[in-house]
Design brief:
The chain has a single domain, classed as Orthogonal Bundle (434 Repressor (Amino-terminal Domain)), CATH 1.10.260.40. The chain contains 4 helices and no strands. Keywords: DNA-binding, Transcription, Transcription regulation. It comes from Flagellimonas algicola. Pfam families: HTH_3.
Amino acid sequence: MRKVGKRVRQLREESGLSQFQLGVDADLTKNQIGRIERAERNTSIVTLSRIADALEIPLSSLFLFDD
């Protein structure tokens, strides 16, 4: 989950979105986005799909890690 959270943060920042705006676009709260980015909660594939849709990227992009 840490790698996914880090990737969500990276893609969100590259898109120029705040946690609040990504949350609005994905129908999640800012706090939920923050907890996902910090890997403080396990996230369902449905939630990750909503985040990917909000970022206008394929879901698989959330699983492309640099290491």
